[in-house]
Amino acid sequence: MTKDDEAARDDAASKQRENATEPAAEAMVPAGTNATRTAARLSEYGFFFDFDGTLAPIQQDPQSVQPAVGVLAALSALAARAAVTAVVSARPVAFLAGRLGAVPGLRLHGLYGLEYSADGGASVRTSPEAESYVPLIARVVADARAAFPGALIEDKRLSCALHFRADPDLEPRIDAWAGARAEADGLLLQHGRMVVELKPPVETDKGAVVLRAAAGLAGAWYFGDDLGDLPAFAALDRLVAERPGFHAVRVAVGVAEGRGAALGGRADLLLDAPPRVPLLLDSLLTEPHGSGAP
Ligand SMILES: [Mg+2]
């Protein structure tokens, strides 16, 4: 997609928002999330987003996934004002950079934090412990492709993702194969929606990323849609418990599509689908600055 396409898309999104009815706009930032408190100290807040299913609608073909309308503009506006604006994804940084790399100031955490880029993907820092697993992961990818010729086996360099969205009947066989392989090679298993991933046994999850990035923040919002996002919600719980006055908001996305259910019970706010996220951010960014009182 060209920059012009993106601009046109974001322009269309802002027109859509202008046409949105007042009640819908109001409902975007419910009182329970205390948006005024965030708006008053936005420059001390961190915003963390999962990508697939949260900023971008899920697609049958994982490679065709693109950010929802308005996401790039909303993230750009947010990154210009918040202390931290970051995407924390199971995807490699290279993939995220292709979709989000044009957003100035956006941090990209790939592969659950094993990869990191602060400059839109121009330079990528890889966890040194994980790097040594690259040859083993390459063998796992080759073996998985041989074992499941019809399935999408995604080579993420530092992890191997076995997708069964296109053929859900494969789930038990893929589960069994991945479980055996994890055991044999000393790899970690990560279950997601319609996907199982094999990754290096390097302790990392989205929660660890949030905790590392949280130094000095007055508060943080996390947006997610899947099981892999639960550790990030737990990280926010921990920050609230450990830091007096820390303000956390947990947002579950995808509730309308029956997703986000695993997170729904732990969320402060439920959004029905990814296009809601930029609408929420726009509301937050235009929220009148209040007293900041809880
Ligand atoms: Mg997701």
UniProtKB/TrEMBL annotation:
An example Gene Ontology biological process: trehalose biosynthetic process
Enzyme Commission designation: 3.1.3.12
MF terms (GO), sorted A to Z: metal ion binding; trehalose-phosphatase activity
Catalytic activity, as annotated: alpha,alpha-trehalose 6-phosphate + H2O = alpha,alpha-trehalose + phosphate
InterPro entries for the chain: HAD-like_sf, HAD_sf, OTSB-like, Trehalose_PPase
Pathway stated in the Swiss-Prot or TrEMBL entry: Glycan biosynthesis; trehalose biosynthesis
Top EC class of this enzyme: hydrolase
Cofactor: Mg(2+)
Keyword Magnesium: yes
Claim: Magnesium is one of the keywords in the record: yes
Keyword entries, A-Z: Hydrolase, Magnesium, Metal-binding
Residue segments, region Disordered: 1-27
Pfam families: Trehalose_PPase (PF02358)
Compositionally biased spans, kind Basic and acidic residues: 1-20
Family: Belongs to the trehalose phosphatase family.
Its biological purpose: Removes the phosphate from trehalose 6-phosphate to produce free trehalose.
UniProt-recorded name of the protein: Trehalose 6-phosphate phosphatase
Gene: otsB
